[in-house]
Amino acid sequence: MVLGVDISTSITGFAVVADEQIVYYDSIDLRKHKGIFEKTVAIKEKILDLYEMYQCNNEDVLAFGHSQFPIEHIYIEQSLHMFMGGKSSAKTLSLLTRFNGIVSWLLYETFEIEPKFIGASSARKEAGIKVPRGQKAKQVVLEHLLETEPAFKIEYTKHGNPKPESYDRADAIIIAKAGAAIEEREVNVKYRIKGAKVAPPLRAPDPDTESMVSQQRLTYSNFPDDGPWNLKEDYEQRVKNFLEYRLLIKPGSLDMAVDIGSLNGKWEGLLFEYCDKVTCVDIFSDRFDTIRERYPDKVKAKKIYFYETLGYELSGLFDRSADFSFSLDSLTNAAPLMLDLYLKEIHRVLKPGAMAVIHVDTRSAAEIISGTLKSELFYGL
Questions:
Q1: Percent of the chain with pLDDT over 70
Q2: Residue 178 needs a FRET pair 20 to 30 A away by CA distance; which of 14, 49, 121, 374 works?
Q3: DSSP H helices in the chain
């Protein structure tokens, strides 16, 4: 979730957006508080309330920082850096800049998230709002939200005008929406989850490769749903022991894992113990529906991604974008050429120094050792 903040020494607005939906908006009126320090005390209490609402497990008040859906990003409207037609004096700009810095620090200190700053015009652009010449931006933003967001409600004065806090809340919503759009775009660029599926340039598909892929699909399609997918506790524990004591991977220490041959999410639960995010790779996209059903919270939190492979490539992922590559039970029947192609792709996708766990049968292992599967790449992982 993204917290958007429109900081002002008069009224400061807050908004939280998740999955393009407004989940919270409010404001604090600071006009009754005199002086920058009194205003700081008041807004600090508001920030602490937000922290308790979104970063704590409310079923256990001691579980700070363990909320199921916490705020992950904070965006703040950038303070003015120039005079605006006589509207902002040097004293006003100086006070606003100081207060912006104080609130930014309070947010960082409380949430332990470094805020990002975005200009008002840039935020409106991200939200698809154009301000016609001669019209006030705040009024345009308010009318846009009233027309497009059923969840956004405002109160009016006895004269029929929007109450002052309405504008600050609206601005905070736009800041949060812009931040959410930016973060989603950065994730898609970093991991290249979206985009055309193109075979990698390392080797063009040939009839032999296509034949092997077809045979692999036939092999996978014959696996019963209640068969090899079900983990035995001792098997899972052995895998965990291998990761922690042989590879020295600590729980929660990795960012992105790539699970090649994710099947119906057999190993995703274990991978999430060590990684913040997982990209599931499989040749059957319908298996992704099962994973979505098994891990709805991860899907909602955008911690799990999906890529339908051609059976020998990872072209949907950028170079050096993953911390860990994992494949158990899925490539044991893969032909040597397919493993060769996958190894090249794994080598390309992993960050320098990252590790890969690849489960193959003894025949394939012998070919890896003999060099048939380009062992210099394998050992270079």
A1: 76
A2: 49
A3: 36-55, 90-111, 120-126, 137-148, 165-191, 207-221, 233-241, 268-274, 287-294, 296-300, 336-349, 362-370, 375-380
- CATH fold of 194-380 reads Rossmann fold (3.40.50)
Closest CA to 276 of 304, 297, 249: 304
DSSP string, 301-343: TT-EEEEE--SS--TTS-TT-EEEEEE-SSSTT--HHHHHHHH
Residue 349 burial (CB < 10 Å; 0-12/13-18/19+)? buried
SS3 134: coil
User: CATH class for domain 2-190?
Assistant: alpha beta
Which among 250, 133, 169 has a CA at the least distance from the CA of 5? 169
pLDDT at 4 over 90: yes
Q: Cα(first)–Cα(last) distance of the chain, in Å?
A: 34
Residues 6 or more apart whose CB falls under 8 angstroms from that of 72 comprise: 1, 2, 113, 183
Residue 48 half-sphere exposure, CB side, CA atoms within 13 Å?
6
Q: Is 204 helix (H, G, I), strand (E, B) or coil?
A: coil
CA–CA dist 66, 51 (Å, integer) = 11
In the block, residue with structure tokens 């995010």:
277
The Cα 371–Cα 381 span in angstroms is 15
All structural domains of the chain with their residue ranges: 2-190, 194-380
Put simply, whether the predicted model's pTM sits higher than 0.70 gets the answer no
Over the stretch 102-161, which tens digit does the pLDDT of each residue have?
A: 999 999 999 999 999 999 999 999 888 999 988 999 999 999 999 999 889 999 999 999
Neighbouring residues of 196: CB distance < 8 A, sequence distance ≥ 6: none
Residue 231 token pair? 């983990």
Identify whether the C-beta of residue 43 lies closer than 8 Å to the C-beta of residue 106.
Answer: yes
State how far Cα 216 lies from the chain centre. Answer: 32
Range picked from 71-85, 197-211, 227-241 for highest mean pLDDT? 71-85
Residues 6+ apart with CB under 8 A from 34: none
